[in-house]
Amino acid sequence: PSAMPSSMPSPTDATTTVSPRSNDCIICDDEETPWMIDNEHDCTNFDYLINTMCNKDTYWNNNKFCRLSCYNAGNGYAGDVCCTGLETPLRPSSQPSSMPSSQPSAMPSVRPSSQPSS
């Protein structure tokens, strides 16, 4: 009897589709306008300006004020894809995880020995 069933697809039968990475985003800040700072307004709580100025006003477009809040409100600047939290690139933690990483380490964990193994 054969070890492999004849109905098994060969590796060349499968097609692979490469999709763009979902974390191709930029970290956007929420820098207020000078007027907002002088009047103690914040990008996250001034919906009127976020909905009327962001990508609709030349001064705001040139300076990209409240970039993250504008993006989150659907009024982002042309070409911006801001990280919203889920896509933010992972940063190293000071505490090791008990779960193994899905990505191999760039550095080998074992040094090769100078003696051949027998």
Structural features, described:
With 118 residues, the chain is an all-alpha fold. Helix content is 19%, strand content 0%. Residues 8-22 and 88-93 have low confidence and may be disordered.
Provide the fold topology.
Layout: H1 34-38, H2 47-52, H3 58-63, H4 67-72
List keywords for this structure.
mainly alpha, 4 helices, elongated, 118 residues
In summary, what is this structure?
This protein is an all-alpha fold and 118 residues long. Helix content is 19%, strand content 0%.
Low-confidence stretches: 8-22, 88-93
* Average pLDDT score: 73
Oligomeric state as shown: single chain
Between the first and last Cα atoms, what is the distance in angstroms? Answer: 36 Å
Instruction: Note the overall shape.
Output: elongated
Rounded to an integer in angstroms, the radius of gyration calculated over CA atoms is 25 Å
Number of strands: 0
Helix count from the secondary structure assignment: 4
Percent range of helical residues? 10-25%
Characterize the main sheet: none
Q: Beta-strand percentage?
A: under 5%
What structural class should be given to the helix and strand makeup? mainly alpha
Q: Give the SSE string.
A: HHHH
